[in-house]
Amino acid sequence: MTRAKICGITRPEDALLAERLGAWAVGFILVPGTKRYRPPEHARRISEQLGPFICRVGVFQDSPPEAVLAHMAQAKLQVVQFHGFEPPAWAEEVRRHYPLIKAFKLSGPADAAMLEQALTYPCDALMLDGVNPGSGQGYPLAWLEPFLGHPRLIVAGGLNPENLPSVLALQPYAVDVSSGVEESPGVKDGQKVRSFLDVVSRSAQL
């Protein structure tokens, strides 16, 4: 069964809708200067409104472990997502406290060096994203093929309700969406969220 994460949450109503419609996780962008950034205390206010069976993910980019751990505690989140060029030693430190998702950006087919780096990185799940995360820009599905043997592969980058079925046919561990279900950066479109999660749910029943 493929799980779904709704990322770029900035409003409590969007988080609660995602939870009600069956999302497995919601993501909070803790990268200052980005369109969907909100400070940790804002994420905490939303997190505290959610029930116990939906995962709260904090997304970081090139923040050292001490900052990540402080912000995770402040925001009351449960899983860390690295989305930059964090060295493996940072991952190992964070994983002493939280499960970790590591994202790699695909700008073309993976060469041997990139493939080895991604498949040996110390993490609990591997995410593949587009070269400009949050932009809605995707990539050819053929670029995913070398990674499909990973037991916890998360596919992100340009997903929306229309192109989701072809990704689900690959049976990844999870899919991740942000701009593909938005009205504007950080503001989710309820009908698009519903349609996205309906597609995920239907695929699980096949």
TrEMBL record:
This is N-(5'-phosphoribosyl)anthranilate isomerase. Coiled coil: none annotated. Belongs to the TrpF family. It is an enzyme of class 5 (isomerase). Gene3D superfamilies: Aldolase class I. Residues 4-198 form the N-(5'phosphoribosyl) anthranilate isomerase (PRAI) domain. Pfam families: PRAI. One of its GO terms (molecular function) is phosphoribosylanthranilate isomerase activity. GO terms for biological process: L-tryptophan biosynthetic process. InterPro entries: Aldolase_TIM (IPR013785), PRAI_dom (IPR001240), RibuloseP-bd_barrel (IPR011060), TrpF_fam (IPR044643). Pathway: Amino-acid biosynthesis; L-tryptophan biosynthesis; L-tryptophan from chorismate: step 3/5. Its EC number is 5.3.1.24. It catalyses: N-(5-phospho-beta-D-ribosyl)anthranilate = 1-(2-carboxyphenylamino)-1-deoxy-D-ribulose 5-phosphate. Keywords: Amino-acid biosynthesis, Aromatic amino acid biosynthesis, Isomerase, Tryptophan biosynthesis. SUPFAM superfamilies: Ribulose-phoshate binding barrel (SSF51366).
